[in-house]
Amino acid sequence: MAMRHFCRIFAVLLATAVLCACDEGDIQEKEVGYAQGGYTVELHGRLTGIDGWNDGYNLVVAAFDEKDKDYDMGELRIGDDCEGKDTTIVWTNINHIATSVELCVATRLRRRVVCFRKEVLPEDGGTLRIDVGDLNVGLFSGVEALFSDNRRCVGCHGEGNFGQLRLNHENAHADLVGKTAHRAEFEGYARVEPGQPEASALHLMLDPDDERGKGVTMFNHKAAYGDELNQQNALSVIDYWISAGAPR
Fold it and tell me: What's the rounded Cα separation, in Å, for the pair 91 and 210?
């Protein structure tokens, strides 16, 4: 059996005991005291792509309630040291008013921008066990999650290949990165130009400050869901992925 790496960390404000285990390293513990009680969450899996998130974006396990669905009540950051390793996270004493927990990406202000897995907490308290298996949580997986969460994106650009753009998992990267935009407003632009958001039709089509993409031909994407995506901070995530070179 491989050596296990244990580090006990406590989530901001709400947790009193968190155990993170990756598959190699020394034992390290850090404790902070808070009121006892509440939920326990155990998350198991092998996560890849963690190291792609930085510059204010963190992969976390976070608790939410129904009153404020965008900002978490408390969170535990999952560090780069768990990249590609069998990982176990045990988070105890989560506030009893929380209604759900998510494996997600959040900003420094603890606003969720991408959700990879959401589970409802049991009404009777106790322990919730979550097995995510082998899960890619990298930048492009985050972008795919944004498209999937918005049914209008995949509704048109799924298997149906509307506009010769498919945003399903098998084809999204190949159909976006380096491919010439078909719409007349973006003549000469690539759909995604790696490293250059403002030279990418995907950015321009959703940017509320850009006049192009307002439906001169075919369809007004900004009016349909641009505001919704921007409210979710989605455009900043898309731009971050493009700026990083649009990795797979």
Answer: 44
List the beta bridge partners of residue 6: 21
Residue 229 dihedral angles phi and psi, to the nearest 5°: -65, -40
Helix axes 234-243 and 139-149, enclosed angle (nearest 10) = 150
Are 13 and 73 in contact by the 8 Å Cβ rule? The answer is yes
* 26-to-1, 23, 43, 79, 81 alpha-carbon distances in Å: 15, 10, 21, 15, 12
- Phi and psi of 25, rounded to 5°? 125, 180
pLDDT at 185: 75
Is the model's pLDDT at 192 over the cut of 80? yes
- Owner of token pair 């006892």: 36
114-125 in b/e burial notation, b at 16+ Cβ within 10 A? bbbbeeebeeee
Query: Which DSSP state fits 67?
Result: T
Are the beta carbons of 41 and 15 closer than 8 angstroms? no
Q: Is 90 exceeded by the pLDDT of residue 225?
A: no
Confidence at residue 6, expressed as pLDDT on a 0 to 100 scale: 31
What is the rounded CA–CA span in Å between residue 185 and residue 203?
Answer: 13
Q: How far apart are the first and last CA of the chain?
A: 32
| Sheet of 100-106, strands arranged across | 74-77, 58-64, 100-106, 112-120
- The continuous run of DSSP H or E covering 90 comes out as strand 86-94
Contacts of 79 (CB under 8 A, 6+ apart): 20, 50
Give the pTM.
Answer: 0.79
Type of residue numbered 101:
V
Cα Rg of the chain (Å, integer):
20
Calculate ∠ Cα 218-164-168, nearest 5°. 110
